[in-house]
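Recap from last week: sequence in, structure out.
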Amino acid sequence: MSDNTNNNYKIDAKGYRLGKLATEIATVLQGKNNPNFERHIISDITVTVENAGQLDIPEKKKDEIYQTYSGYPGGRKTETLDHLAKRLGYAEVIKRSVSGMLPNNKHKKRLLAKLIIIE
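Predicted structure tokens:
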């Protein structure tokens, strides 16, 4: 359900599953859907996600655990997807899911900067 005009993609998240949405966003951000895809070049694509709060998340997945680690002993913090969504909104949940699907290299921050999420 994406409309593309001049390298601006709009995706309506209403009724989408979180994983399906994150994979579509990660694929478009990297430019893998373009025929002239090159792994070392960042394409000038902006992805806008609308209706992020209306994702289709089953009750079982709301108990999924998100972790952060500070690097210090005892510095691991965990929280559920439901708690994270209430604390920071579904935009942060989508951003973390897409971040996990992008390659861990110097392009990751640049690609995530081109992701705009509207609740």
